[in-house]
């Protein structure tokens, strides 16, 4: 097995940092609305659309550009590492209730669409199911990987080249 265990966690953390800054500095400006009485509010539907666009963009970019050549087994191991890290930090942040919770939320921002969608559909804020499903989001990258056998994935890449050589002979 190649040393690919670090790819999903690094990609998720980097994508989350970018998503957080896009949301704060640029994208959430589209969700701020002025009410008839002059007060300013946030439109949760527009915010959810923005979260959804970012979520699917991160998922497709990661899956099609970065994880396509990695076997599903390796992606599963790498995603599992991110899930364990997320659960550990989630429990630690829940215990400490300090700046760690804020910083970890910033570093897991790419998957906020899942929990926000469930909250909008009526899920109670005290329910941990949206947070758990959000933590399991890295498993979605496994669908973009090559077959379960990394050796077969490497052989599949060599196969078209070998066919070209045989045709020339």
* Unreliable parts: none
Number of domains: 1
Give the SSE order as H and E letters.
HEEHHHHHH
Provide the spatial order of strands within the biggest beta sheet. Answer: 1-2
**Sheet/helix structural class:** mainly alpha
Mean pLDDT: 83
* C-alpha geometry: globular
- How many helical stretches? 7
- Please state the CA-atom Rg, rounded to the nearest Å: 20 Å
Could you give the count of β-strands?
A: 2
N- to C-terminal separation? 34 Å
Strand content: under 5%
**What characterizes the major β-sheet?**
2 strands, antiparallel
Question: Can you give a write-up of this model?
Answer:
This protein is globular. The protein has seven helices and two strands; from the N terminus they run H-E-E-H-H-H-H-H-H. The protein is mostly helical. It is 65% helix and 4% strand. The mean pLDDT is 83. A hairpin with a 5-residue loop joins strand 1 and strand 2. A two-stranded antiparallel ribbon has the order 1-2. The protein has one domain.
Describe the SSE topology:
Elements: H1 7-25, E1 32-34, E2 40-42, H2 44-66, H3 72-96, H4 99-106, H5 112-120, H6 129-135, H7 150-168
Helix pairs in contact: 1-2, 1-3, 2-5, 3-4, 5-6
Please supply descriptive tags for the structure shown above.
two-stranded antiparallel ribbon; mainly alpha; 169 residues; 7 helices
Short description:
With 169 residues, the protein is mainly alpha-helical. The protein contains seven helices and two strands. The chain has one domain.
């Amino acid at each position: 097995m190649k040393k690919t265990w670090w790819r999903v966690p690094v990609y998720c953390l980097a994508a989350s940092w970018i998503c957080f800054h896009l949301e704060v500095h640029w994208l959430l400006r589209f969700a701020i609305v002025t009410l008839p009485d002059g007060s300013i509010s946030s439109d949760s539907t527009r915010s959810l659309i923005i979260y959804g666009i970012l979520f699917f963009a991160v998922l497709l970019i990661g899956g099609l550009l970065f994880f396509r050549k990695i076997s599903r087994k390796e992606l599963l191991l790498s995603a599992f590492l991110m899930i364990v890290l997320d659960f550990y930090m989630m429990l630690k942040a829940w215990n400490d209730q300090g700046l760690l919770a804020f910083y970890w939320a910033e570093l897991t921002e790419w998957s906020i669409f899942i929990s926000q969608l469930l909250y909008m559909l009526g899920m109670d804020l005290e329910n941990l199911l949206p947070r758990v499903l959000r933590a399991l989001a890295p498993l979605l990258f496994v669908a973009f990987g090559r077959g379960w056998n990394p050796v077969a994935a490497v052989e599949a890449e060599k196969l078209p080249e070998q066919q070209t050589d045989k045709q020339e002979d």
